[in-house]
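Model the whole thing, not chain by chain.
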Amino acid sequence: MKSVELTINGKAVSRKVEPRQLLVDFLREDMRLTGTHVGCDTSQCGACVVHVDGKPVKSCTALVVQLDGADVKTIESLAADGEELHPMQEAFRQNHGLQCGFCTPGMVMSALGLLDQNPDPSETEIREWLEGNICRCTGYHNIVKSIQAAATTMAATNK
Amino acid sequence: MYEFDYHKAVSVDDALKSLTSASDGKLLAGGMTLLPTMKQRLASPDVLVDLAGIDDMKGIRKEGDQIVIGAMTTHAEVNLSALVQKEIPALAELAGLIGDPQVRNRGTIGGSVANADPSADYPAALVGLNATVTTNSRSIAADEFFVDLFETALDEEEIITSVSFPLARRAAYMKFPNPASRYAVVGTFVAELADNSIRVAVTGAGGSVFRQAEMEAALGKSFTADAIEGIAVDGDEFNEDIHASAEYRAHLVGVMARRAVAKIA
């Protein structure tokens, strides 16, 4: 077992973990943060996307031990008080950007990674960015619309 | 995945020591290939030596007429680097075509190069730009580095520390990506180097990246897409899978080469 210290959704966490434990399993099983999903488990579908030190990564393809000292943010960090949705979540809701919802946490975290880097992306840039996030329900149109809407709101409210 | 011990190396020497004392140790860079391989139990190292803590192996700098990229620099960092975008834009662009954004935030140039996947993008840039791979013990020209399918000139216990790319007069990379994995079905890197030599490097088609000598000669005479129009590519030894036949890959080599030339002619 190896000792790790991480910040998860703003909270300092220290644990002993097996070197082979994946970040996504640590989040879901040890931290009980089950908003992050395991879809394909082969780093293709993007349901497991979380932010590590501000950047979106696939948590099914990272070991917890690699991330000792890192700052991890999951979907649960966005509407932390459970009342007001983050503008990105609200945009998915308003634009019907989800059907079954399985891919949504990863979509939202990926989309926020895009806006961090490019606050005003074109439709093409959004679609290219979503290469690593697979949705089998929506056909992506409403997801793209949601991200465009969120970009507008977030630019206006500076969030 | 099977159990293993984990060591986060603090220096290249520390990593070498740890690797040497393991019976089947493996170096961990970004883990974008190694971790999935271990999950499938196709690899079961007893020790993983993580290189992510070695600061000397990160970063991008200009040294004379070379861009030197630390082995642990991620694809996203190369893609977004103002220095690479200015000095070798084709290289920045290529890095932005690897995998997807999340993979680019973890995957590294050193890991990709050491793995030598026949469909990886970086090998085309290394050979196309006549780059040099620097390890803990020596420098290896890209032409000698890539040997065969997942096989390089690296010794068992040797660590890539950086890759140096000479500035090119002009360069372009065009690839036909597998729509699911984004790996290159075929990718062609065309460059005119500072010494006027022309290079055409092809990835995805064969067991390893290779140069297309006939196209290089034709482009030396006339740097136009038309100059390589009639050149037949022999696909006898090419890769064949459910995504593309060898014959189709041979066809794509010409198409991608012409598109790359047209972009910078």
